[in-house]
Specification:
Elements lengths: L4 H13 L10 H14 L9 H10 L1 H9 L3 H16 L11 H19 L10 H18 L13 H10 L14 H17 L6 H21 E3 L5 E3 L34 H4 L2 H9 L7 H21 E2 L9 E2 L41
Antiparallel strand pairs: 1-2, 3-4
Length: 370
């Protein structure tokens, strides 16, 4: 972690607890424990792998979990150990329905990161269930990659899993809608989970077929980013710009303010929205470390992290001012600040996210992994 680590972690914790940070006069260490107990201790006792909870848990616990290991706070580490121990005890009953896939991938990614964070310690209390956790992860990754039908806009599902769907997206066919060939969150989550598993396998005894599978997925990740990344002048880059231009969420991006009755205003090369992109730093780290240090692929993803750092801090972040004394982000990764998701189903009619209104994802803290 660097640059934004403390800033985003404190923002995250204060957002969860609604405790004003500057009201504490105690030491910073004591303040951290107060915030942790208020925000994490009871929350983490829930069965957070359930579909209704997994999405938020995967988002909101990632930075605290990394903080627990980075700061060597063993009491915090044990809380995560208890969460994943309970999860593995439930593994015989664990299944991923199609409409639960994205939510549960959030939690599985959290688990894959725990696998490697805990493996870096000598504390046996964190590892007695590690093999069970690895087994649960690799089995679900295998099913999603090769066997479970992968839904697709505009056509029937791919029977050969996400691998077959990605092969189709990498192909030369021209779909009816541009966004039909967009690489989506559930694919990127699977790449990142496989990256963590591949890294774990380097120091564990695992069957050859499982290593082969993780290697195949990481190689696909490399092909996808090679295809989808568009480099900018200074080493910055954008991920699949323009591919979402005809998706309903992006049809009004050309408008710079909200108003009733807006007409569609497309931007042909619209960048990804910042709310989905905030996961990129950790995804990239998970894939980067899956490849041998110094390899072509490892260096490529390291360069992507450096370019993303530059893109984020030079194009996306808006620093505090007297008029608005807090950090904000533009709505899109190229610095454009137009409307996102106008008339979206979960929002009221004639409404959407106006300029700066996706800034809340800063508080989840994932940008601190840059």
């Amino acid at each position: 972690m660097k640059k934004t680590a403390l800033f985003t972690l404190l923002l995250f914790l204060s957002a969860l607890t609604a405790i004003p940070i500057n009201t504490f006069s105690d030491t910073g260490e004591k303040r951290n424990y107060i915030l942790w107990d208020a925000a994490i201790t009871d929350y983490i006792k829930q069965d957070l792998w359930q579909a209704s909870l997994a999405y938020d848990a995967g988002h909101s616990l990632m930075v605290p979990m990394h903080a627990a290991f980075s700061l060597n706070e063993q009491a915090w580490q044990l809380q995560f150990a208890d969460l994943f121990r309970r999860f593995t005890k439930n593994m015989k009953n664990y299944a991923i329905a199609e409409n639960e896939r994205l939510s549960k991938l959030h939690f599985l990614y959290l688990g894959s990161c725990y696998l490697n964070l805990s493996a870096g310690t000598q504390n046996s209390a964190l590892s007695d269930f590690r093999e069970s956790l690895y087994r649960l992860l690799i089995e679900n990754v295998t099913d999603l990659w090769l066997f479970k039908p992968a839904w697709q806009w505009g056509r029937k599902a791919f029977g050969g899993g996400m691998k077959e769907r990605i092969d189709w997206k990498l192909g030369s066919n021209i779909p009816w809608k541009k966004y039909y060939k967009a690489f989506i969150d559930e694919e990127l989550f699977l790449f990142a989970i496989a990256g963590e598993l591949s890294y774990y396998q380097t120091n564990a005894t695992c069957p050859a077929n499982e290593k082969k599978l993780a290697n195949e997925i990481r190689q696909y990740a490399y092909k996808v980013f090679r295809k989808a990344v568009v480099l900018q002048k200074g080493g910055e880059w954008l991920f699949q710009p323009g591919v979402w231009s005809d998706h309903p969420d992006f049809l009004y991006a050309g408008h710079s303010r909200k108003a009733p009755g807006l007409k569609a205003s497309r931007i042909k090369v619209i960048a990804e929205d910042v709310s989905h992109s905030h996961r990129l730093p950790l995804w990239l780290k998970s894939i980067e470390k899956a490849f041998p240090s110094g390899s072509e692929q490892n260096q490529y993803f390291a360069a992507l992290l450096s370019g993303l750092d530059k893109q984020f801090f030079e194009k996306v972040v808006v620093k505090p001012t007297n008029a608005f004394p807090s950090y904000r982000t533009t709505n899109y990764m190229d610095g454009w600040n137009g409307i996102y998701r106008y008339d979206y189903g979960s929002l009221r009619s004639n409404y959407g996210y106006g300029p700066f209104e996706l800034s809340g994802t800063i508080t989840l803290g994932w940008w601190s992994f840059l």
